[in-house]
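Hypothesis: this fold can be encoded by more than one sequence.
Test: take the C-alpha cells below, design a sequence, compare later.
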C-alpha cells in the first residue's frame, strides 16, 4: 500500500485546507453564524456552499458527470479529514452525514439515469437534503435490524402500505428524499426491503425532534410515525428482501466516512491545544514545556495517526473492491475513542476557556460522545472483530 497522495488529490486537499483556514474557521467564533440547534445557520451555509462550488470543492464522493469530484475512497479520506478541521466543513463541501451515505448508496443501486435524475441529483446539487430511516424504538430494531424490525410494508398489487415507528433518524426535519427500510416478510435473512419516498407523500409524519446532549446535525434526530404511507413498487430499491443488503452497502462506507471526518475534528482539538499551551505560562514556565503536557499531546498525536492508518487501509481495500468489514470495524472503534480523548484533552489543557463557548472545543466535546454509538455501537463492532477472528484464525493477521 502506497500512502502517497496523487499530485491532483494532494493539490485538492491543500486547497480544502486553505478554504477551511480562511473561510470557515473564522466564522466559528461568531454565534450569529449558528442556528437555534447549535449548527451553521442556513443562510450562512448557502453562501459558503456557493463559494465552495466556485472553488471546485464539491461532493468529492460523487461522479464528475453528476457534478462531484469523482475521487477514489482513499481520496475521500484525505479530503474529508481536511474538511472537518472545521465543524462547518462537511456541510459546506456537501460531504456530511447522512447525505453523503445516501448519495453513495443511491449512486450504486439506482439503475436508470432517470431515477438518478429524480432521486439523487437534487441531493448532489445541494437543492434538497435526505434521510435514512431505519432505527426503531424498543422492542424494534437498533443494532439488529434484520432480527427485530417491526415497521411493516405490506404489498397489495403494485403498492406497499407502511405502518410503524422510527426514531433517532438523522436529518429528517427538513429533508425531502427518504430511504426507508421496512419489513416485507418474516424471513430471518431476507425479510427487509428498502424504499424511496418524498416528504410530501401522505401517510407519515414527524412526531418530534428529539433533544440531544450534543450539537444537533442539520435536521436533527427525529421520531417518525407511519400510518398508511403508500409507496409504489417502482420506488422500491433493489429486489424485495434486499433491504438488509442495501443497508450494509450503505453503512460500510458511511461508517468509514464518519472516521474520516472525526480525524479532522481530532486534529483540530490538538491544534487548539497546541496553540494555547505554547503561549500560556504557569508557575514560571510555558505549559508546552511541561513533561505532563507533552505526554498528553504526544499520546493524542499517536492515536490520531493510528486512526489515519486504519482508515486509509480500509479505504484502500474498498477501492480494491473488498468489503473491508474487519478494517472498518477497527477504524470505527479506534477513531471514535480517539475523538473523545482528543476533545477531553483539549478541554483539560485550556481549562475554563476550553469549557466555555469561546472555542469550539466544548462543541466537539459534546458531539464526540455520539461517535461511539452512531452506525453501530463500539461493542457491536468488537463483536464483528471477535467473530472474524474465530472464523479466520491465523488468517485474521494475513498481510494484503
Amino acid at each position: 500500500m502506497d500512502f502517497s497522495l496523487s499530485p491532483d488529490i494532494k493539490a485538492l486537499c491543500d486547497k480544502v485546507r486553505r478554504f477551511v483556514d480562511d473561510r470557515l474557521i473564522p466564522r466559528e467564533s461568531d454565534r450569529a453564524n449558528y442556528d437555534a440547534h447549535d449548527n451553521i445557520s442556513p443562510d450562512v451555509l448557502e453562501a459558503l456552499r456557493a463559494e465552495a462550488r466556485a472553488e471546485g470543492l464539491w461532493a468529492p464522493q460523487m461522479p464528475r458527470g453528476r457534478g462531484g469530484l469523482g475521487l477514489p475512497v482513499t481520496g475521500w479520506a484525505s479530503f474529508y479529514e481536511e474538511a472537518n478541521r472545521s465543524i462547518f466543513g462537511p456541510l459546506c463541501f456537501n460531504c456530511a452525514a447522512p447525505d453523503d451515505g445516501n448519495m453513495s448508496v443511491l449512486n450504486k443501486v439506482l439503475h436508470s439515469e432517470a431515477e438518478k435524475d429524480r432521486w439523487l441529483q437534487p441531493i448532489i446539487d445541494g437543492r434538497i437534503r435526505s434521510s435514512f430511516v431505519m432505527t426503531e424504538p424498543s422492542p424494534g430494531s437498533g443494532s439488529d435490524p434484520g432480527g427485530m424490525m417491526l415497521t411493516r410494508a405490506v404489498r397489495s398489487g403494485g403498492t406497499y402500505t407502511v405502518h410503524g415507528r422510527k426514531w433517532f433518524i438523522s436529518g429528517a426535519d427538513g429533508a425531502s428524499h427518504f430511504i426507508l427500510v421496512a419489513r416485507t416478510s418474516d424471513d430471518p435473512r431476507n425479510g427487509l426491503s428498502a424504499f424511496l419516498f418524498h416528504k410530501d407523500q401522505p401517510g407519515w409524519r414527524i412526531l418530534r425532534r428529539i433533544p440531544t446532549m450534543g450539537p444537533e446535525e442539520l435536521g436533527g434526530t427525529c421520531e417518525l410515525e407511519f400510518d398508511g404511507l403508500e409507496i409504489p413498487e417502482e420506488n422500491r430499491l433493489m429486489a424485495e428482501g434486499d433491504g438488509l443488503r442495501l443497508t450494509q452497502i450503505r453503512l460500510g462506507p458511511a461508517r468509514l466516512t464518519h472516521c474520516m471526518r472525526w480525524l479532522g475534528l481530532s486534529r483540530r482539538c490538538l491544534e487548539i491545544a497546541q496553540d494555547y499551551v505554547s503561549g500560556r505560562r504557569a508557575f514560571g514556565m510555558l505549559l508546552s514545556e511541561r513533561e505532563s503536557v507533552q505526554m498528553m499531546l504526544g499520546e493524542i498525536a499517536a492515536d490520531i495517526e493510528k486512526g489515519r492508518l486504519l482508515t486509509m487501509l480500509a479505504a484502500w481495500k474498498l477501492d480494491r473492491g473488498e468489503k473491508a468489514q474487519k478494517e472498518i470495524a477497527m477504524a470505527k472503534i479506534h477513531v471514535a475513542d480517539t475523538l473523545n480523548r482528543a476533545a477531553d484533552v483539549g478541554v483539560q489543557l485550556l481549562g475554563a476557556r476550553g469549557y466555555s463557548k469561546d472555542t469550539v472545543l466544548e462543541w466537539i466535546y459534546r458531539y464526540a460522545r455520539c461517535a461511539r454509538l452512531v452506525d453501530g455501537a463500539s461493542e457491536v463492532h468488537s463483536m464483528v472483530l471477535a467473530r472474524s477472528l474465530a472464523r479466520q484464525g491465523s488468517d485474521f493477521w494475513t498481510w494484503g
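Residues 58 and 104 are 14 Å apart (CA to CA). The beta strands are 130-133, 152-156, 159-170, 177-183, 192-198, 204-209, 221-232, 236-237, 281-282, 285-286.
Hypothesis status: open.
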